Amino acid sequence: MKRFLTALAPAALIALSSVAPATAEKLSLSTLSTYLNSLGTVRADFVQTNDDGSKSSGEVTIKRPGRMRLDYGGDKDALVLVSGGQVAVFDPGSNEPPQRFPLSQTPLSVILKRNVDLNAAKMVVSHREQNGDTIVRAQDPDHPDYGYIDLIFSATPVLKAWVIHDQGGGSTTVQLTKMSLGGSVADRTFNIRAEANRRGTPID
To answer: What's the predicted TM-score (pTM) here?
Structure first.
């Protein structure tokens, strides 16, 4: 959990395996931008691999633009909420309010923004094909010091995984399975203040 916080600190989406020929061509940035912009509400299971090799799992809910919820277990377990331009990390071992910082200062902002444009100047650091997948390394062109994100797409395309690289050289890999698209998710699901109040750690 602490590594995830480090990977996001200032400085979805499924693992459906798609077997593709090793000679497959990489998908264009325009195709991938269109795909990401087509995603609205997404639910999936995830497995997170931290820089030290430890693993954790849970459920992720995404409501583009700008909202994400990563549940790491039960009602009082670790939780990451993204909403209102902020990222909040709830630590179950603490009685303090969640740690918060701007979404704009994390690599996740690349895929949660309203209009994803991977063709934007200096956003994409590298763009390659590997074993039938297309891998795009992207960052905020105005703040490369905030870290960067690798987006791994199958040939379909489907976003199979992402890898967040922080400014300290650490990385966190998130792979997701059992994705479902569409449906209604209440905005309260992502409300940081409401969640803090529910857990008895209100935000001042």
So the answer is: 0.81
